[in-house]
Amino acid sequence: MKKEFAVIGLGRFGGSICRELSREGMEVLALDLDEDKVNEYRDIAAHAVIADSTDESVLRELGLRNIDHVIVAIGDNIQASMLTTLMLKELGIKTITVKAQNDYHEKILNKIGADHVVHPERDMGKRIAHNIISNNILDYIELSDDHSVVEVKAGSKMSGRTLVDLDIRAQYGCNVVAIKRKKDVIVSPMATEEIRESDILIVIGADKDISRFEKNLV
Ligand code: ATP
Ligand code: ATP
Ligand code: CA
């Protein structure tokens, strides 16, 4: 069954979400105040409308109530973003994702009842910083303030050794949840899996443990 989405605000972030959802075959209602922006999405989204999302009657007329998931991607106008989120919440939208512009905005959105608050510039900045610091960390996802999932290059120290040999869980408190080997992904590798130099390990753990693991083995 096709899921229905609405994207409010077609800047770079909202626009990218709208394109990707549509490309995946989802039915998307794209909405923006700006006529040119909306025109850009006429052939991409299932529906594209010029409207002000802070106008409650507009939200009702568009039948937004029946949409599963609404993404609010209004950036600079924090007031419009908050007001839109509040009204969507009052309409009873099941899932609301909102882009936050700063930490205060994020706090308020959480209080209003946004289901997911995203902060793409801050989070992408953090990810890139981690990739820059360590040549071996290819990617990084923050799970909480002190837990992450990282993608690391195996390297020569681990090459030819098994997870048991390296005793990663016991020694470092981290878990290797998957190994990427060329085009294959070995999910939940066995303790006897032998690591190859060009493998990429997906490791989950506390930041301090991952950092110890990385210092000693990568
Ligand atoms: P980017 O993702 O490009 O960084 P941004 O986060 O800086 O964008 P803005 O450019 O401030 O966001 O806004 C994104 C879009 O939201 C703009 O195209 C703007 O026209 C639209 N927008 C702003 N207010 C409203 C509103 N009340 N109703 C509908 N769309 C709105
Ligand atoms: P333990 O109870 O001591 O953690 P276990 O019963 O899970 O061990 P095995 O699965 O045989 O025993 O693994 C032995 C050791 O190999 C583990 O203690 C751990 O150090 C390491 N190991 C095995 N699989 C992984 C993994 N996926 N990630 C990290 N370390 C692993
Ligand atoms: Ca911006």
Automatic annotation (TrEMBL):
Known InterPro entries for this protein?
A: NAD(P)-bd_dom_sf (IPR036291), RCK_C (IPR006037), RCK_C_sf (IPR036721), RCK_N (IPR003148), Trk_Ktr_HKT_K-transport (IPR050721)
Domain called RCK N-terminal: residue spans: 2-118
Give the molecular function GO annotations.
monoatomic cation transmembrane transporter activity
Q: Name one GO biological process term.
A: potassium ion transport
Q: Which residues form the RCK C-terminal domain?
A: 135-218
Q: Which Pfam families match?
A: TrkA_C (PF02080), TrkA_N (PF02254)
Q: Which domain of life is it from?
A: Bacteria
Q: What is this protein called?
A: Potassium transporter Trk
Please give the organism. Answer: Halobacillus mangrovi
